[in-house]
Amino acid sequence: METPVLNTRWLATLRGTISEPTPIGGNMLVFNVDEAELEGPKISAVVVPPSGDWLRVMANGNWKLDVRLMLETTDGAHILCTYTGTLKADAGLSERIANGESVPGTEMYFRSTPYFETSDSRYEWLNDLVCVGTMRQFGAGEALYDIFEVL
């Protein structure tokens, strides 16, 4: 039997800054996305309000993401990007992030599943994509990750 493969193609890089979270209850953190940009060969956009990240800290310390970003492209289109995801956060990683360290993506399991939605005909191709995001760098108020289209 052949080993299955999953083919992907890099779509864009998302770079953003986030402020200190607002704690809600015992395990929910809400982050306002202060500033972010999405850059790739077929898209260039900035994140505009309303945009935010609802992060649930699970009993084992892992993070479950619920993110909603409003993108505005350089040519004026509006695109909604929503994603869920997981960060496996062992005690050492959580401590490093809490201490303000910027941690390379190679030292963590941080994956997301971005979906895009727009009615702008120039970007409707995004509506049909299934994507996966991988963290490249995280911490110190910044996030940098790559988004891949699943082929």
Features:
151 residues, mainly beta, 5% helix
Task: Give an overview of the whole structure.
It is a single chain. With about 150 residues, the chain is mainly β. It has a single domain, classed as Beta Barrel (Porin). The chain has one helix at about 90-100; strands at about 10-20, 20-25, 30-40, 45-55, 65-75, 80-90, 105, 110, 115, 130-140, 140-150. The protein is globular.
Strand content: over 45%
- Quickly name the level 1 CATH class: Mainly Beta
**CA-to-CA gap between the ends?**
22 Å
Gyration radius, in Å: 16 Å
Q: What's the number of domains?
A: 1
- What is the overall number of helices? 1
* H/E series: EEEEEEHEEEEE
Category by helix and strand content: mainly beta
Number of strands: 11
What sort of overall outline do the alpha carbons produce when their principal axes are compared? Answer: globular
Q: Which strands sit side by side, in order, in the main sheet?
A: 1-3-4-5-6-8-10-11
CATH architecture verdict: Beta Barrel
Low-confidence stretches: none
CATH topology: Porin
How much helix, percentage-wise, in residues?
under 10%
- Average pLDDT works out at 94
Largest β sheet strand count, sense and barrel closure: 8 strands, antiparallel, barrel
